[in-house]
Amino acid sequence: MIHLLHHALTESALRAPDHDVLRFNGQSLTYAELDARASQLAAFLYDQGVRKHDRIGVLLDKSLETVIAIYGIMRAGAAYVPLDPRLPVLRLLDIIADCDLKGIITQENKHALIAETASQPSALQFVVGVTGIDGVRAYAWADVAAFPAEPSVRTRVIEQDLAYIMYTSGSTGKPKGMMHTHASGLSYARMSASLYSVRADDRLGNHSPLHFDMSTFDYLTAVLCGATTIIIPEAFTLFPVNLAKLIESERMTIWYSVPFALIQLLLRGAIDQRDLSSIRWVLYGGEPFPLNHLRALMERLPNAQFSNVYGPAETNHCTVYTVPPPHEWSADMTTIPIGEMVPNADGLILGDDDQPVAAGEAGELVVRAPTLTRGYWNRPQLNARAFYRQTLFPDYDALYYRTGDLVRQRADGLLEFIGRKDHQVKIRGFRVELAEVEAALTAHDHVAHGAAFVLKGGAEGDDVLVAAVIAHDGMVLSAADLIAFARARLPHYAVPSAIHIMESFPRTGTGKVDR
């Protein structure tokens, strides 16, 4: 019986031990090999004192070890915590302290980052993947290989226990960690497997890094179905021509990414020269897809279904709309709807008074589903604000997540995305709190005020994050210095591409900064 995420690996390894679960840069890993190596890591972690409910960080570039890490950690009874490999040290230390990480799984090319991190006071006790680190116990992957390849850890874990914690931007300037259980992760894997008819012979293109919630489709859903995930190297994401070659040579069947990646593939991938007929389903989400680019891509991939997937990481995806062929689009269509709720999900559209809006009116979407996060790690006040409760019966409340997204329901029942209720934006699919960017900038001794904003829809359909600052009286600021200052405090996607130094900001009639 599968009631934990790592049970799916056990079952798939029994059904098809020699079938590839992962392929990366000419290397591959079968289900039997992943099962054995995850067991070795689980035994090693237990030997290091890791117990149920502990949190272990995963700081890896894309690699076969990524999936060994997440399944080994879960098999040990702990929760994995994806860490962006490009995080600045200050940000990494924030997460280590906030989540009380006991250990980190990493690789040798992160030696300098780990060494600098370990030199600062924290709860970190050990690292795997690097050696010669002062202040913590440091082990090579070869040390893990000395442990038994058969399951030996018998920690009792149930489906309500934590499986992973995924960090994202927080409006206070501190990252916030979304807690997902085995139940919520497995519910998502089952739902998405059914919705997109994922089979053992499917080959999923993993474009997203582990710290991006889209990766759960590639690493959790695929394993549940016994499918193969093709991990796309970072270098290929930067060169669309090579990416198109990889899609063709690996005969990928399902693709899931933000629209920007697909737009780059369309514009620079020379896809007319490639046989991409293996792709049967293209999923995209995270931001709107410009219609002109979507139409062009659909015309070049006529055998593929296209689905607009919507959902914050707190719910994983909760609505979907399968886009009809371009020749069926109406002449006055200006946007693609986000569709309707996926099976086993429910939503309400609320006004500012927390009451359902009238038919056709815009309001905030609140969602309940078994895929829902248990809340934010160590953030009780945020949890109190993030959820809406609806009393169904005496002493029984339905719990909904407040997405902060404004939507309206069209006459045909489909949901249409309007915009954000607050100042959270998405840049190439990454969530960015404008308040967090502003907090980082105003931490500079010479900055009096900061404002972050987005320039919408560049030539290639991507939005651009920029900022403006006002200096303290008598202080001189340099845009280049401010960008370097921000880069040391923010994840790469939240660093403004340009910073303008101004004497004053434009204001609305209510005195607010007019972004």
Distance between the termini: 53 Å
Task: Provide the structure class.
Answer: alpha/beta
Q: How many strands, what sense, and barrel or not for the largest sheet?
A: 9 strands, mixed
The unreliable regions are none
What value does the average pLDDT take?
92
- Number of separate helices: 15
Q: Assign a percent range to the helix content.
A: 25-40%
Strand content: 25-35%
> Biggest sheet: strands side by side, in what order?
2-1-11-10-12-13-14-15-16
Please tally the β strands and state the result: 27
Shape: globular
Radius of gyration (CA) equals 23 Å
Q: What is the subunit organization of this protein?
A: single chain
Give an overview of the whole structure.
By secondary structure, the chain is of the alpha/beta class. The strands form 6 sheets. A 9-stranded mixed sheet has the order 2-1-11-10-12-13-14-15-16, sandwiched between helices. Strand 21 and strand 22 form a beta hairpin. The N and C termini lie far apart (53 Å).
Lay out the secondary structure:
Elements: H1 5-15, E1 20-24, E2 27-30, H2 31-47, E3 55-58, H3 64-75, E4 79-82, H4 89-99, E5 103-105, H5 111-118, E6 126-128, E7 137-139, H6 141-144, E8 162-168, E9 176-181, H7 182-195, E10 203-206, H8 215-225, E11 228-231, H9 234-238, H10 240-250, E12 254-257, H11 259-268, E13 281-285, H12 291-300, E14 305-310, E15 319-323, E16 340-341, E17 346-350, E18 363-368, E19 375-376, H13 380-386, E20 387-393, E21 396-409, E22 415-420, E23 424-427, E24 430-433, H14 434-442, E25 447-455, E26 464-471, H15 479-487, E27 498-502
